[in-house]
Write a structure and sequence with these properties.
Blueprint lengths: L1 H15 L7 E14 L8 E15 L3 E15 L4 E18 L2 E15 L8 E12 L4 E10 L10 E12 L1
């Protein structure tokens, strides 16, 4: 719990710092389509939402950026018996490359901290993941983005199965 507090305070300070004038921050939101993948799982995708804030920190002007984020993400899956909902506070730290001003690609680790679950099983309180995404960057700071996130560790303690999430949404950069 202490590590979570330190991580959240660090992410917050990074997001609100104004030490470099070229840094931009923004908000993002959209839909999650999540499922669990593993041996013996017969599940369907569940729809949820995500909402968060991010900061774009330049490493190589107009080309390479680090984009830390903090977001709330509703994930889960559907079985033939019940819908399982798992809510996370996620902290992606992505490398973002602009192929052109209009198109960018991002990838990097994402750290998921359990906020709530439906008591389906003993959900792990921390799940490391990896994210891959792309954005169509429109004028006036608006972008449309898609991202695929795959769990690197099991979602539940003692049960083999990893989160798989596809996100589609929009972002606005200030």
């Amino acid at each position: 719990m202490r590590s979570l507090k330190i991580l959240l305070i660090g992410a917050f300070l990074m997001l609100v710092s104004t030490t470099v004038s070229a840094q931009k921050f923004g908000i993002r939101a959209g839909a999650n389509f999540s499922d669990i993948n593993g041996d013996g799982w017969n599940t369907d995708a569940k729809t949820g939402l995500y909402v968060g804030v991010y900061k774009e920190i330049p490493l190589v002007k107009s080309l390479l950026f680090i984009q830390p984020e903090v977001q709330y993400s509703q994930e889960g899956f559907s079985t033939n018996i019940d819908d399982v909902k798992i809510d996370y506070l996620t902290v992606p730290i992505l490398a973002k490359i602009y192929a052109a001003k209009l198109l960018s690609f991002e990838t990097g680790p994402q750290f998921e901290f359990l906020v709530n679950d439906d008591n389906f099983g003993d959900a792990n309180s921390f799940v490391p993941s990896w994210a891959f995404g792309t954005s169509l960057n429109l004028p006036l700071g608006l972008s449309i983005n898609a991202r695929y996130i795959t769990g690197l560790d099991d979602t539940y303690d003692g049960i083999s199965g990893k989160n798989q999430v596809f996100q589609v949404g929009a972002a606005f950069q200030f």
